[in-house]
Amino acid sequence: MLRSLWDYRGYVRASVARELRLRYAGSVLGALWQVIAPLALIATYTLVFSELMRARLHGIEDRYAYAIYVCCALLPWSMFAEILTRSQTMFLDQANLLKKSNFPRICVPVTVTGAALANFAIVYAVFGFLLLAASRWPGMVVIGALVPLTIFAILGASLGVLLGVAHVFFRDIGQVLGIVLQIWFWMAPIAYPSDMLAPPYDRWIAANPVTPIVIAFQDIFVRRRWPEWGALAYPAVVGIVLAALALLAFRRESPQIVDEL
Amino acid sequence: MKGEVNCVGLGKAYRQYAAPWLRLAEWAAAGAWTRHRVHWALRDATLHVGRGEAVGILGPNGAGKSTLLKLITGTTRPTTGTLQVEGSVAALLELGIGFHPEVSGRDNAMMAGQLLGYRAAEVAACMPAIETFAEIGEFIDRPLRTYSSGMQVRLAFSVATAIRPDILIVDEALSVGDAYFQHKSFARIREFRAAGTTLLFVSHSAAIVKSLCDRAVLLENGRIIRDAAPDRVIDDYHARIADHAVENAIVEGRGGDVRSGDRRAAIEEIALLRNEAPTLVVRSGERATLRVRWRAIAPLDDVTVGFIIRDPLGNDVYGTNTYHLQHRQLDVPAGSSFICEFDIGRVALGVGHYNVSIALHREMVHVSGNYDWWDRALTFEVIPGRGVHAIGVAALEVECRMKQSTMRAGG
């Protein structure tokens, strides 16, 4: 499976590029929207939290700290949510291609995750540029963000494959995912500081494998220090287990997927 | 050997569930309880195709033709049996697979080529050849949505056949293009065959199968029921669908909008006969009979039976009636039934599809009293006969003489 994926790397690369290009095809500003959209999002959060609400993080005096706090974790979360939503319908979206053409099926989920990662790279680059402009660049520790990002992407891609396979056979999945993502978002300290929660709810949040990932991003961009690597072991293990399950399910079910479409 | 296809006892079954929750229930029961219906799309298919052979696959809709091709292509896996496919396979199961309307023809071609498993550099190297063959000019750099369907077919075929495969699989895909490009693509397929490519070809057109293939198989209800020379299989195929199709034509025509008249007389059955047997295919130049059974509903003083043959575009090709043939039927009592046979000594029609309209009317033309007029009552196909290869609706008898002229140019 990996071997055939390698043979089709050119196709996957071209698919990802096309995906990104098509997102804004036919619009006057074209690829510029790729930058404008996150810019607007970040500006809104900054305006609301830093200027209007004057929200401050406990122990940090910086007026932009809260906006940075929200953005640095929200943007990766958006990538995670995008992988899941797109993965869920990916086989149905590509039904005709899968039925009429013989190419490695693994290209489909890889393209979805690849496109989400590429989009995220652009968005995060804008974020990074703004940090530089506002002289809030955290420095060397930024490299550390690759670790929580990789774990997050593995979690998303694996869950995505499982969802996508299940969705071919049971269309109900589509209705549930939106609700689950909504609850899941608030189960991680993305939009609020983690120390705001009183027991016993803090335990719930700690049980969420996304929480250590989110905190790692916040450590890097807000507290400007290396994340606690040990805390990332939990989501990493969950990610590996899910990835194994996803590969197993995909190997077993991919012939049936084509027949069912 | 490369280019060989070997199927032994090949079968494909699909599971069908009455409701989605039944699948869930079945899955939860872990095999203790089954509630699906098994539908066999293909059963016990044994077929050997040697290198460089061209095999036509015939059969009515739902006979399993596409399933067989999908199995050989590898898009779906067999439920039973074994399958060996040696060498590279290029499948045209549908032209323009993976094309996107917003992207330029060039980018779509690059993508489609990579989808077939070629590397970007390989496709790029073939790009000039693809452009030349497709003949779409500067459209290659315009978005695909600006293309006509004919142009899309040209591009898709050019990409799919840019590199000669060991096995080429074509499923009805070429029927969309214009006549010029169709001939051009058949020429390329023939070229491939000459170079040793194996061809598997699905078509409803007996003429194409006959001219392109050296063997044909007939599928019915998921089974291969015939495997022989194209001529024999085509005859068999048409014999099987003839009765069925004539029956259907009558049912469809009854009371439909294509039928008009005051119904004082009614056309009851129409058949095209070859050697006394109903058929929907005749060879160009062959003898055929058009038989019309009709009944007078009311007493009529004068009945003329007429027919007209039209091409698919609706152009009149030939038409006449019993008035002109000196066979008017006068003073017909109500309830009497007649059989009228038009003997066509030589079907001097070119290869293609034609339809026949039948009319029962008074005197010379239908304006003086139209009893029953049935448009497109029957459709038939003319396949190549013994005559020379030719195009057009008419099959003229042409001979040629040529000798060197004694006159010098400019002399």
Topology readout:
The complex is a heterodimer of chains A (261) and B (411).
Chain A: H1 2-7, H2 9-23, H3 32-52, H4 65-93, H5 95-100, H6 107-133, H7 146-169, H8 173-186, H9 201-207, H10 210-221, H11 233-260
Helix pairs in contact in A: 2-6, 3-4, 3-6, 4-6, 4-7, 4-8, 4-10, 6-7, 7-10, 7-11
Chain B: E1 5-16, H1 20-29, E2 37-49, E3 54-58, H2 65-73, E4 80-85, E5 89-92, H3 105-115, H4 120-134, H5 149-160, E6 167-171, H6 179-194, E7 198-202, H7 206-212, E8 215-220, E9 223-228, H8 230-253, E10 259-260, E11 265-274, E12 277-278, E13 281-283, E14 288-296, E15 300-310, E16 316-321, E17 329-332, E18 337-344, E19 352-361, E20 370-383
Parallel strand pairs in B: 3-7, 3-8, 5-6, 6-7, 13-20
Antiparallel strand pairs in B: 1-2, 1-4, 8-9, 10-20, 11-12, 11-14, 14-18, 15-16, 15-17, 15-19, 19-20
Helix pairs in contact in B: 3-4, 3-5, 4-5
Polypeptide structure, described:
The complex is a heterodimer of chains A (261) and B (411). Chain A has helices at residues 2-7, 9-23, 32-52, 65-93, 95-100, 107-133, 146-169, 173-186, 201-207, 210-221, 233-260. Helices cover 72% and strands 0% of the residues of chain A. Chain A has one domain (2-260). Chain A contains eleven helices and no strands. By secondary structure, chain A is mainly alpha-helical. Chain A is globular and about 60 Å long. Chain B has 411 residues and is α+β, with helices and mostly antiparallel strands. Chain B folds into two domains: 5-236, P-loop containing nucleotide triphosphate hydrolases (Rossmann fold, 3-Layer(aba) Sandwich), CATH 3.40.50; 242-383, abc- transporter (atp binding component) like domain (Coagulation Factor XIII, Chain A, domain 1, Distorted Sandwich), CATH 2.70.50.60. Helix content of chain B is 25%, strand content 34%. Chain B is built from eight helices and 20 strands. Chain B has helices at 20-29, 65-73, 105-115, 120-134, 149-160, 179-194, 206-212, 230-253; strands at residues 5-16, 37-49, 54-58, 80-85, 89-92, 167-171, 198-202, 215-220, 223-228, 259-260, 265-274, 277-278, 281-283, 288-296, 300-310, 316-321, 329-332, 337-344, 352-361, 370-383. In chain B, strands 10, 13, 15, 16, 17, 19 and 20 form a seven-stranded mixed sheet that branches. A six-stranded mixed sheet of chain B has the order 5-6-7-3-8-9, with helices on both faces. In chain B, α3 crosses α4 (120-134), α3 crosses α5 and α4 (120-134) packs across α5. Chain B is globular and about 75 Å long. Chain A binds chain B through residues 7-8, 10-11, 14-15, 18, 21-22, 25-26, 96-103, 169-172, 255, 258-259, and chain B through 14-15, 20, 23-24, 70, 73-77, 89, 91, 93-94, 97-98, 100, 102-103, 107, 110-111, 114-117, 119-120.
